[in-house]
Write a structure and sequence with these properties.
alpha/beta; 5-stranded parallel β-sheet; globular; about 160 residues; Ribose 5-phosphate Isomerase B, Chain: A
C-alpha cells in the first residue's frame, strides 16, 4: 500500500515516526512535507495528500496538524477523500472497515509518540468490509455518503 503523509508545523515532530511505522509494516510512505518547524498552512498539506489519493499515486493518506481538526476539515473538502480524526485505536481501524475512511488525521499536539505508532498500525491494518458476505450494510452506508458528496445539497 502507498501512503501519502502530509504535515504542517504542528505535526512535523511526528512525521518521521509515522513514516517509520508505515515502512516497518511493509508499505511505501510518500512524504509531502513539511520539512521544518516553520509555520505553514495545513490546507496545503491536506491538499497534497488528497491529490495523491485522487490521482492514484497513493492508496491512503495521513494528515497531521496541531489538533487534527484543520487538516481533517481541509481533506474532507476534496472529492473522494474520507478523512477522520482518530486519537484511539478502535476508530483508526473501524473507520476504514465500516466507513471507507482513506485519510487518518492526527493531532501532533494531542497524541504522543507511542500512541501514534499504534494508531498508524491500526489504520494500516483496516480493510473495508462492505464487500464481504453479510456486511453489505457498510457498502450501502458508504454509497449514501458518496451520494451526499456528489449531490452537494444545500438547504
Amino acid at each position: 500500500m502507498r501512503v501519502a503523509v502530509g504535515t504542517d508545523h504542528g505535526g512535523y515532530l511526528l512525521k518521521e515516526i509515522v513514516i517509520a511505522v508505515i515502512r516497518e509494516k511493509g508499505h511505501e510512505a510518500l512524504d509531502f512535507g513539511t520539512d521544518s518547524k516553520a509555520s505553514v498552512d495545513y490546507p496545503d498539506f491536506a491538499e497534497k495528500v488528497g491529490i495523491a489519493i485522487q490521482s492514484g499515486k497513493a492508496d491512503r493518506g495521513i494528515v497531521i496538524c496541531g489538533s487534527g481538526v484543520g487538516g481533517c476539515i481541509a481533506a474532507n473538502k476534496m472529492q473522494g477523500i474520507y478523512a477522520a480524526i482518530c486519537h484511539d485505536v478502535y476508530s483508526a481501524k473501524q473507520g476504514v472497515e465500516h466507513d471507507g475512511m482513506n485519510v487518518l488525521c492526527l493531532g501532533g499536539r494531542i497524541v504522543g509518540t507511542e500512541l501514534v505508532k499504534v494508531l498508524v498500525q491500526s489504520f494500516l491494518e483496516g480493510r473495508f468490509v462492505g464487500e464481504d458476505q453479510g456486511q453489505e450494510r457498510y457498502k450501502r452506508r458508504v454509497e449514501k455518503v458518496k451520494k451526499l458528496e456528489k449531490e452537494g445539497k444545500q438547504s
